[in-house]
C-alpha cells in the first residue's frame, strides 16, 4: 500500500508515492514514463541490489543504464558527463525518460542531466536513502559540485514522480540512516515543534528502522517540503528555510574535501552552529541549544565542527553560498525551536564567536 502526497506546482505538479514494495511495481512507473526509451542512472553500490527490480518493473520499455561511481567526490562535471555519453552513444531522442535510482548524489546528477539533455527531458526519482526519500528527491533542486562550492552548478527541474520504496532502507548503512535523520530533524526545527517532540520520543524506533516510525517521518518530512516548495519553487523567499544548517554544513563538506563528511553529518553540525548563533543573538536560550544538540546527538550525528577548520577558513568557504546577495551572507537561524527565519543581520563578532566555538 502506498501513501500518495502531491507537490502542487500547476502544470508541473507531481505525486510522491511512499510505501513498501513499490520499486518493482510497474503501476507506479507506467503513468509517468514518457516515450519508449528509459535510461536508468544509478551507482555501483545500488545497481547490484536494486537495478534488476527496476528493470523488471519497466519491462515494457526499451531500457538502458548508466552506472556511476559511488560517492559525493564523484558529483563532478566529469562524471556527470558520462550520463550524456551514454545518452548520445545510444542515440536517445527527446521522447525518453531518465530514472534516478539511488541516493541524493545520483538524484541530483540525474535530475541535472535531465534538465540539460537536449534542453530538457523528463525524469523520475526513485530514492533509496532516507535522506533522498525525505528531501533530495522532492522539489526539483538538481546539480553538481564545484571544488569551490557545493551544488554550485545546477538547475531547477521537477521530476514527473517520486517513487519512495521504504523497503530499500533495510540495506542502508546505519550512518547513512543517521545522515537522513539530520534532514528530518531540520523540518521540525524550521516549522514543526510537535514533529520535533515526536522525534524526541521515537528516536529509538527510527534508529531501529521501525517501519511505522520511518513511514511517519518520511511522510511528514515530504508534506513539509512539498508545502514549502509549492509556496516558493525557485527560492526567492521561504524555501531558503530548507537551508538550515547548510551554510556551515556546505563549508565543512567543501573544506574537508567532498566525501569526507556525509552531507547529513555536516548539516547536523551546521544546525548546532545555527542554534549557537541564534543564542548569541538572544533568540534561543541555553536550554533550547542543549535540546538541539541532544536531538542531533541522539540521532547518531556529530554536533561539533572539525577542529582543523579555522574561523577564517570557514568564512572564506561560506562566502561561496547561493544565499549570498550583493556580497552579503544570509543565514537561516532560529527565532525559536520550530520557527526559522532568514537574516543577513548578524554582527561579525557574534558569527566569529560561533565559528571559533568548540565543545571541550
Ligand atoms: N536536491 C536537493 O534538494 C537535495 C537535498 C538534500 C541533499 N541533497 C544532496 O544529496 C546528497 C546526499 O544524498 P545521500 O545522503 O542520499 O547520499 P548518497 O547519494 O551518497 O547515498 C549514500 C550512500 O548510500 C548508498 N546507498 C543508496 N541507497 C542505498 C540502499 N538502499 N542500500 C544501501 N546503500 C545505499 C549510496 O551508494 C551511497 O554510498 C548530497 O550531494 C546533497 O548535496 C540534495
Ligand atoms: O530543497 C531545498 O531547497 C534545500 O535547500 C534542501 C537541502 O537539504 C539540500 O541540501 C539542497 O541541495 C541545498 O541547497 P543549495 O541551494 O544550498 O545547494
Ligand atoms: Zn541538505
TrEMBL record:
<feature type="binding site">
    <location>
        <position position="246"/>
    </location>
    <ligand>
        <name>Zn(2+)</name>
    </ligand>
</feature>
<keyword id="KW-0456">Lyase</keyword>
<feature type="binding site">
    <location>
        <position position="141"/>
    </location>
    <ligand>
        <name>NAD(+)</name>
    </ligand>
</feature>
<feature type="domain" description="3-dehydroquinate synthase N-terminal">
    <location>
        <begin position="66"/>
        <end position="178"/>
    </location>
</feature>
<dbReference type="GO" id="GO:0009423">
    <property type="term" value="P:chorismate biosynthetic process"/>
</dbReference>
<keyword id="KW-0963">Cytoplasm</keyword>
<keyword id="KW-0057">Aromatic amino acid biosynthesis</keyword>
<keyword id="KW-0862">Zinc</keyword>
<feature type="binding site">
    <location>
        <position position="183"/>
    </location>
    <ligand>
        <name>Zn(2+)</name>
    </ligand>
</feature>
<feature type="binding site">
    <location>
        <begin position="168"/>
        <end position="171"/>
    </location>
    <ligand>
        <name>NAD(+)</name>
    </ligand>
</feature>
<feature type="domain" description="3-dehydroquinate synthase C-terminal">
    <location>
        <begin position="180"/>
        <end position="324"/>
    </location>
</feature>
<keyword id="KW-0547">Nucleotide-binding</keyword>
<dbReference type="GO" id="GO:0046872">
    <property type="term" value="F:metal ion binding"/>
</dbReference>
<protein>
    <recommendedName>
        <fullName>3-dehydroquinate synthase</fullName>
        <ecNumber>4.2.3.4</ecNumber>
    </recommendedName>
</protein>
<feature type="binding site">
    <location>
        <begin position="128"/>
        <end position="129"/>
    </location>
    <ligand>
        <name>NAD(+)</name>
    </ligand>
</feature>
<dbReference type="InterPro" id="IPR056179">
    <property type="entry name" value="DHQS_C"/>
</dbReference>
<comment type="pathway">
    <text>Metabolic intermediate biosynthesis; chorismate biosynthesis; chorismate from D-erythrose 4-phosphate and phosphoenolpyruvate: step 2/7.</text>
</comment>
<feature type="binding site">
    <location>
        <begin position="104"/>
        <end position="108"/>
    </location>
    <ligand>
        <name>NAD(+)</name>
    </ligand>
</feature>
<keyword id="KW-0520">NAD</keyword>
<dbReference type="GO" id="GO:0003856">
    <property type="term" value="F:3-dehydroquinate synthase activity"/>
</dbReference>
<comment type="function">
    <text>Catalyzes the conversion of 3-deoxy-D-arabino-heptulosonate 7-phosphate (DAHP) to dehydroquinate (DHQ).</text>
</comment>
<feature type="binding site">
    <location>
        <position position="150"/>
    </location>
    <ligand>
        <name>NAD(+)</name>
    </ligand>
</feature>
<dbReference type="InterPro" id="IPR050071">
    <property type="entry name" value="Dehydroquinate_synthase"/>
</dbReference>
<dbReference type="GO" id="GO:0000166">
    <property type="term" value="F:nucleotide binding"/>
</dbReference>
<feature type="binding site">
    <location>
        <position position="263"/>
    </location>
    <ligand>
        <name>Zn(2+)</name>
    </ligand>
</feature>
<dbReference type="GO" id="GO:0005737">
    <property type="term" value="C:cytoplasm"/>
</dbReference>
<keyword id="KW-0170">Cobalt</keyword>
<comment type="similarity">
    <text>Belongs to the sugar phosphate cyclases superfamily. Dehydroquinate synthase family.</text>
</comment>
<dbReference type="GO" id="GO:0009073">
    <property type="term" value="P:aromatic amino acid family biosynthetic process"/>
</dbReference>
<dbReference type="GO" id="GO:0008652">
    <property type="term" value="P:amino acid biosynthetic process"/>
</dbReference>
<dbReference type="Pfam" id="PF24621">
    <property type="entry name" value="DHQS_C"/>
</dbReference>
<dbReference type="InterPro" id="IPR030960">
    <property type="entry name" value="DHQS/DOIS_N"/>
</dbReference>
<dbReference type="Pfam" id="PF01761">
    <property type="entry name" value="DHQ_synthase"/>
</dbReference>
<feature type="binding site">
    <location>
        <begin position="70"/>
        <end position="75"/>
    </location>
    <ligand>
        <name>NAD(+)</name>
    </ligand>
</feature>
<keyword id="KW-0028">Amino-acid biosynthesis</keyword>
<keyword id="KW-0479">Metal-binding</keyword>
<dbReference type="InterPro" id="IPR016037">
    <property type="entry name" value="DHQ_synth_AroB"/>
</dbReference>
<dbReference type="InterPro" id="IPR030963">
    <property type="entry name" value="DHQ_synth_fam"/>
</dbReference>
